[in-house]
Specification:
α7 packs antiparallel against α8 and α8 runs parallel beside α14. The N and C termini lie far apart (66 Å). The chain has 2 domains: 173 residues, 3-Layer(aba) Sandwich (Rossmann fold); 129 residues, Nitrogenase molybdenum iron protein domain (Rossmann fold), CATH 3.40.50.1980. The strands form 2 sheets. Strands 5, 6, 7, 8 and 9 form a 5-stranded mixed sheet that branches. Strands 2-1-3-4 form a 4-stranded parallel sheet, sandwiched between helices. With 331 residues, it is α/β, with parallel strands linked by helices.
């Protein structure tokens, strides 16, 4: 993996070599998962030990100028969000499809596909100096072809919390935003410590975080979301799975009997209505079924401190409703 290299425009021979290549967009991969869940599951197929995410704006109010001569293409929503959060729009020349429809700040930039359908032709046509990717199996050939065109590829995995924090700094260093990256890392660590301290004052409960209902995907022990549950005072029943996002059966969920179900699926049927069909699950009878917005909590983007606070607020709100209902029954 190459981290240095010239940020200047490539030599003329390099440009000619790129322009002779022609091809169509990458293959679409059809499966039984919605798009947001596929983004998460795709990142579970990681070949390196790094991650890519960031948070917030420059907390000090200072603005480090990024390496203005760089031309950067982002192939993943979490990495695009990180570049936006690090105020590096000046260097961004191409983005993934998801960000083009969910990030207004970059909506006008050229689209280059995404995790499951990267377009080599579209990327090469932009003549980037750097392409940032999540090192998934799906894009292995794509990354190899980019390197054949002498394009620097920076692989940033985003599975675990430690990976994410390390990659914030890695990308910040590479684009000339080291100080901003350090401050974002510090902010995330501080939020994790504060939330864990607050949670230590309450009884711990068992939980499952649902990514998709049918088929049923949950958060396993290999994800940063498992660390989020732990910080919030919840013991993840699916932590027994080494995978980040395992597929499980409904029977497993019923047998696990979590006291809390956090549902981030995009199903139009409400979480409470859906899970009320299985009254034997303690979360159903104890008012522990909680819906959280998928994009705010389960996308491994640059705002992990906000994601954790959002999850905790949803848990506390559900607790208040449940306690109020119990109080009303006693009266």
């Amino acid at each position: 993996m190459k981290f240095g290299g010239s940020a200047d425009a490539p030599p003329t021979s390099h440009r000619l070599q790129r322009s002779r290549w022609r091809s169509g967009p990458g293959r679409n991969i059809n499966c039984q998962m919605n798009h947001a869940t596929r983004l998460l599951l795709g990142t579970a197929l990681i070949a390196v030990c790094w991650a890519g995410v960031s948070t917030g704006s420059d907390l000090s109010g200072r603005s480090e100028p990024p390496a203005q001569t760089l031309r950067v293409v982002s192939m993943n929503p979490s990495l695009t969000r990180m570049l936006i959060a690090l105020e590096a729009l000046e260097v961004l020349v191409g983005i993934d499809e998801y960000s083009a429809t969910h990030e207004p700040a970059v909506a006008g930039l050229p689209r280059v596909g995404g995790l499951f359908n990267p377009s080599l032709e579209a990327v090469v046509a932009l003549e980037p100096d750097l392409v940032v990717v999540v090192p998934s199996v799906q894009q292995r050939d794509f990354r190899s072809r980019l390197r054949e065109f002498e394009v620097e590829v920076l692989e940033l995995a985003n599975l675990t919390l430690d990976q994410i924090l390390e990659s914030i700094q890695t990308l910040g260093d590479r684009i000339g935003r080291s100080q901003a990256a350090r401050e974002h890392v510090a902010a995330i660590r501080s939020t994790w410590i504060d939330v864990a301290r607050e949670a230590s004052l309450r009884p711990r409960r068992s939980a499952v975080l649902i990514l998709q209902r049918d088929p049923l995907y949950v958060v396993g022990g290999g994800s940063y979301l498992n660390a989020m549950l732990e910080a919030a005072g919840l013991d993840n029943e699916a932590a027994e799975y080494a995978e980040a996002y395992p597929r499980v059966s409904l029977e497993w969920l019923i047998a696990a009997g979590p006291q809390v179900i956090i549902d981030s699926s995009e199903d139009p049927v409400s979480a409470i209505e859906h899970w009320s069909r299985w009254a034997s699950i303690p979360a159903v009878t104890e008012g522990g079924v909680i819906a959280v917005p998928q994009g705010l909590v389960t996308l491994p983007g640059p705002y992990l401190d906000r994601s954790l606070r959002t999850m905790v607020a949803a848990i506390r709100s559900a607790d208040e409703v449940s306690n109020a209902a119990e109080g009303a029954e006693l009266r």
